[in-house]
Amino acid sequence: MKKVNIILFGIGNVGSTLIEQLFDTKKQWEEHFGASINIPVIANSTKALFKAEGINENWEKDFKKSAEAYKLEDILDFTKENDFEHLIAIDATASKEFVEIYIRLVQNGFSLVAANKVANTLSADFYKKLRKELEYHGKHFLYETNVGAGLPIVQTIQGLHQAGEKITKVRGVFSGSLSYIFNTFSTNKERFSEVLQKADKLGYTEPDPREDLSGNDVGRKLLILARELQLEKEFEEVEIQSLIPEHLNGETSAEEFQENLGDLDEIFQQRKKDQDTDHVLRYIGEIEVKKAALEAKLISEPKNTALGQIKGADNIFEIYTESYGDQPLVIQGAGAGAAVTARGVVSDVLKIAQQL
Ligand SMILES: NC(=O)c1ccc[n+]([C@@H]2O[C@H](COP(=O)([O-])OP(=O)(O)OC[C@H]3O[C@@H](n4cnc5c(N)ncnc54)[C@H](OP(=O)(O)O)[C@@H]3O)[C@@H](O)[C@H]2O)c1
């Protein structure tokens, strides 16, 4: 039976859920896919647990007791000493620096699965260099959860594009936090600042909500999808409407921003009032393929459309193509959360395992 060796970087929300899901699917993989799963190394930003026979259900205790400070070399040496084959490195970190080691991993025999978006949103040069290395070494890189968490967005776009279907436009609500904020604000009577506080309590926003309100996360996801469509774009070329008032931008501290949260109320109340009847506010991302234009912006949308009717923190993606005509292919559902994201990662790992 083929043994797939998984080296997991990042054991936070997604990483720890992923470990549990991999344990749960172990039997199914062995029975149906002829593959067994072994997780010989798990690591956070400072420490790694090495277990040649693979971690087990006691991994949290074992990590606390036996994890040691490490460098990438230690992991590479360990995999060589143990003659591990079918290596897959999973990036479940949120680290900007971690992606610097992707190419070294590929050169050392690893395929990659990433929940982390960073690698696909760096320069187009890095994007191409990584793909060249993958091709040269015959390795794979999957990252379905970069956009829409567990929703099958990347694979759908890839599949249509590779099959020669002409995608003309992708439009949707790409951010779970901004989805919740505007779905709630548009229908409830609460002030914008109250909705923001509620979103924070529910764990939808980043500790500093300006990360969400900047629109940068939506911009990054647009870039990832655009590159799937062979649009050679850089992050700086994405037109992003920030929702942060200028006087509360990055130069003010997160505390100052929180103290002045009320300043946002008048701005968004007015925006809500200025709409036509039966319209709602939505923060959307849009790729106009022909114009190669990528835009993230706040719009007013009729409330009976697919975008207008979404609820909670759902994501929605409308994919317009030549064959689908005016009626887009629509994918909708939870666009965030550890369980759905980890499941998307498991699915990527399985796809690679089947090709190894
Ligand atoms: N949660 C979601 O709904 C969702 C959806 C789609 C995609 N994602 C992506 O999934 C990734 C993980 O999210 P999360 O919510 O699990 O984050 P998290 O809870 O903050 O966990 C991050 C983990 O990465 C580790 N880490 C940070 N830098 C590292 C490095 N250089 N090397 C090795 N490990 C490192 C952290 O270790 P320390 O504890 O030592 O810092 C921690 O274990 C992120 O990129 C996120 O954008 C998440």
Topology of this protein?
Layout: E1 2-9, H1 13-33, E2 35-43, E3 47-50, H2 59-66, E4 68-69, H3 72-81, E5 87-91, H4 102-107, E6 110-114, H5 118-121, H6 124-137, E7 141-142, H7 154-162, E8 167-173, H8 176-187, H9 192-201, H10 210-213, H11 216-228, E9 239-240, H12 254-259, H13 263-273, E10 279-288, E11 293-302, E12 314-321, E13 329-334, H14 338-355
Parallel strand pairs: 1-2, 1-5, 5-6, 6-7, 9-11
Antiparallel strand pairs: 2-3, 3-4, 8-10, 8-12, 10-11, 12-13
Helix pairs in contact: 1-14, 8-9
The structure holds NADP nicotinamide-adenine-dinucleotide phosphate.
Binding site for NADPH: 93, 117
Active site: 221 (proton donor)
Family: Belongs to the homoserine dehydrogenase family.
If classified by CATH, what would the architecture of the largest domain be? 2-Layer Sandwich
Radius of gyration: 22 Å
Binned, the helix content reads 40-55%
CATH superfamily of the largest domain: Dihydrodipicolinate Reductase, domain 2
Main beta sheet: strand number and arrangement? 7 strands, mixed
Number of strands: 13
Counting structural domains, the number is: 2
**What order do the strands of the largest sheet run in, or round the barrel if closed?**
4-3-2-1-5-6-7
The hetero compounds bound to this protein are: NADP nicotinamide-adenine-dinucleotide phosphate
Q: H/E series, N to C?
A: EHEEHEHEHEHHEHEHHHHEHHEEEEH
Distance between the termini: 12 Å
CATH topology of the largest domain: Dihydrodipicolinate Reductase, domain 2
The portion of residues forming beta strands comes to 15-25%
User: How many individual helices?
Assistant: 14
